[in-house]
Design brief:
244 residues; alpha+beta; Cathepsin B, Chain A; two-stranded antiparallel sheet; 4 helices; 19% strand; globular
């Protein structure tokens, strides 16, 4: 149900960072509250079903927001998780994968089609049906974000929604409020999209899941911010779009 492959030694390349400056400090100008959903830059909540493909929803969710922000389009164009499930052999389809590897694969294999042209077939993978002549977004590569939550806040505000990984075992049955699970490791098993932050009893992150709009708060989760909960500070990534 989750869909994240966790290798014995992660291949995460921290040379490609949001900031490589060791003297970088969080910006005081970043707003105290920000919500990319309210800004109209986040696509609808989708449902991965029983296919372990959370990595594709995290990847596509990040990319479609970046395209919307770059092109200043009226509506968010949604992109194809199914293409990644079927075609990306650097990952394992419904058996799991990594968002950063998916972004890197897209950079070397023509880009990501829209889900209008390559629609989701919930619960299974099939033959690759990528068509280069169809509308697609081209990717230059990926960028990792440092482990400091304050800098992740800056990156989220400056670049748009981010792909993140969490240990989700204590969050599966989340209903409402700001979650702060006691039993929560830093080793991830689920990929999601970080879309905002705010304050409600505690500072929180607003996170988009891929289990449909009936899960959580209309498909979203609020997670305590500033305590490195569930490894939220360790795996934030974003695609870098090629020139339009």
């Amino acid at each position: 149900m989750f869909g994240l492959i966790v290798p014995s030694f992660p291949e995460f390349n921290f040379a490609k960072n949001f900031t490589n400056d060791p003297n970088y400090r969080p910006k005081l100008s970043t707003p105290d509250i920000w919500n990319w959903v309210q800004e109209g830059a986040v696509g609808p909540v989708k449902d991965q079903g029983s296919c372990g493909s959370c990595w594709t929803f995290s990847t596509a969710g990040n990319i479609e927001s970046l395209v919307h922000l770059r092109d200043k389009s009226r509506d968010v164009i949604t992109y194809s998780e199914q293409q990644l499930i079927d075609c990306d052999k650097s990952n394992a389809g419904c058996a799991g994968g990594w968002p950063y590897k998916a972004i890197d694969w897209l950079a070397h294999n023509g880009g990501l089609m829209t889900d209008r042209d390559y629609p989701l077939r919930t619960n299974y993978s099939g033959p690759c049906q990528y068509k280069a002549e169809k509308e697609r977004v081209q990717i230059k590569g990926y960028m990792n974000v440092t482990h400091d939550e304050a800098i992740i806040k800056d990156a989220l505000y400056e670049t748009g929604p981010l792909s993140i990984l969490l240990d989700f075992t204590g969050l599966m049955h989340y209903k409402s409020g700001v979650a702060s699970p006691l039993l929560c490791s830093t080793w991830p098993d689920h990929a999601l999209v970080l879309v905002g932050y705010g304050v409600k009893d505690h500072d929180y992150w607003l996170i988009k899941n891929s289990w449909g709009p009936k899960w959580g708060i209309n498909g979203y989760l609020m997670l305590k911010r500033g305590a490195n909960k569930c490894g939220i500070n360790l795996w934030a990534t974003t695609a870098v779009l090629a020139e339009a």
